Structure formats: C-alpha cells, structure tokens
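Q:
Just now I want nothing more than another pair of eyes on a protein record. Here is the record:
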Amino acid sequence: MDFSFKKAERLNKKIWIKELFEKGSSFYLYPFKVLLLPHPDNAETNQILISVSKRNFKRAVDRNQIKRRIRESYRLKRNIHSSSNKYLIAYLYTSKEIMPFNEIQESMTKILDKIKGLDASSK
C-alpha cells in the first residue's frame, strides 16, 4: 500500500475548483466544512483542496501547520476508507484554534467514512 501524497491528488485546476464551490454538495463535521463533487474525469484518485482561513490565523506558520496536519491525516486514512467513485474534495478548516493532530485525524476518519457511505447509498 502506497502512503505517499502524490501531486495528482492535489486539486489545482481553477475550472474544477470553481465548479466545486458552485455546484458541489457540502456537509459540516467539526472542524471542517467539506465540499464534494464527483470527479469530472475518470481519475485514479480523489483530488483534494485544503483551505485555512487567513482571517482566523494571521500567521502563515499557523496556517501551514494546520494544513500539514490535515494533509497527513488524509494521507494516512485515505486507503483504508477509499470509495469506488472518485471526487473533488475541499476541506475548509473552520475552527478558530489549532487542534491537535489526533483530533484532526478522528474528524478525517469520520469524514472519509461519510463519503464512503454516500458512495454506497448512491448505488
């Protein structure tokens, strides 16, 4: 099992990002608001976008630390909770304080389970 986080897993096409924010469905699971859209292409993996508000965290060091924790928790849990359909996913961090890694990882597990459940219910 490959646990690396490849460039192909990052969502960086502006067209797809715009479409995700305009047409994507969303749900909230503390500390994340998650936007979800079925992948427009036949991709091998989900593509994710991670956002941390500059309004809540003025220092770039803090924003980067949170993004690293989110990316790491996704990287470790994505293979265990993978679904057959592939999605464009945006993780918007909404908490006003820096959460410890284990809490972020618990939330990520719940989110990936929910996405897998959505995938199972759509069949």
Remarks:
- The beta strands are 25-29, 32-38, 47-52, 87-93.
- The longest strand covers residues 32-38.
- The mean pLDDT is 90.
- The CA atoms of residues 26 and 92 lie 11 Å apart.
